[in-house]
Amino acid sequence: ATTPEGIELREAGITQPILKLSPCLTDDELDAAIAFEITPTVIDAASIAAVSAAVGRAGGKGFAVHMAVDTGMRRIGCSPADAAGLARTIGADPALKLQGLFTHFPISDQPAGDEFTAGQIVTLEGVAAQIQQDRAAAGLEPVELVHASNSAAVLGHPTDFGMVRPGIMAYGYYPDAQTPRPVELRPALSWKSQISYCKPVSAGETVGLPAELEPRTDARRRGFLSHRRARLHGSDDARSGSGSCRAARAGGGRRRGGHHRPAGQRIDRCGRTGRPDGDDQL
Predict the structure, then answer these.
(1) Alpha-carbon span 57 to 36, nearest angstrom
(2) What predicted TM-score, i.e. pTM, was given to this entire model?
(3) Average pLDDT of the chain, as a whole number
């Protein structure tokens, strides 16, 4: 997720390729990534030029990059329409080598998202096919790696791509109760925390910072000591805070101002709701 994390792995003796699944934000970060042979992600002409310049400063050439393509999550990534042109820009730059193409599936863990995920797969397949065709015509070697599948897609959306990015299933957990289970997973770890306080909250009282939840029914407010997010499968108390964020849960509630949340949905003090992203955090 971050260049410092990649550097820690290198300093711990890891020699396998390390891909940073988001663009580097500064020249200093790029210089560090290049120095420690951490593969950067590019998403547009500016990020391509920045990586090229960093490789040049290091006196290198043919440094591997992966290009993110936005197929519907609306996080990082170029538009599918721009992907082939950006790939040609990389192919014409001796400092760079386009090693990979990837996207991310936001709702592959639920049956309601099957059609959306299938569309994303088709989109990435089309982008990859066009880029491979262009590279063959230019006498360039094909892109080595195309990847998209998080844990839920590995379990429920087979693809012909050459690489996968499992996250939570590597720890022995299924991404969601609705995710297909073609293989049995065995939990490899558990997250535990202490409840620092527990107090009753009456219907209509405000909860959290900035007092944004008013439960429609009586509930209990729970505070956790953990500083890491965790999902305790099969438990209503499904989420702890990250950093200064503490989890709160109400039996049913609404955000002040009239925006409704489904009953039982979790909300934390940083305004996040629902489940953690789980995999391949881009």
Answers:
(1) 14
(2) 0.73
(3) 82
Q: Which residues neighbour 134 within 8 Å (Cβ) at sequence distance 6 or greater? A: 84, 87, 88, 91
CA distance 80 to 224: 42
Classify residue 172 by its DSSP letter. T
Q: Hey, is 260 helix, strand or coil?
A: strand
Instruction: Please tell me the distance from the alpha carbon of residue 244 to that of residue 226, in angstroms, as a whole number.
Output: 10
In Å, how far are 50, 109, 224, 265 from 275, measured between CA atoms?
Answer: 34, 11, 17, 9
Q: What are phi and psi of 260, to 5 degrees?
A: -90, 145
CA–CA dist 125, 160 (Å, integer) = 9
- The C-alpha torsion from 276 through 17 and 144 to 101, rounded to 10°, is 30
pLDDT tens, 148-187?
999 999 999 999 999 999 999 999 999 999 999 999 999 9
Write the CB contacts of 197 (distance below 8 Å, at least 6 apart in sequence): 221, 222, 223
What ranges make up the beta strands (E) of 53-175?
63-68, 96-102, 145-149, 163-164
Residue 105, classed as helix, strand or coil, is coil
How far apart CA 266 and CA 275 sit, in angstroms, is 8
pLDDT at 203 over 50: yes
Strand ranges (DSSP E) for 6-95? 18-19, 38-39, 41-42, 63-68
Alpha carbon distance 253, 261 (integer Å): 6
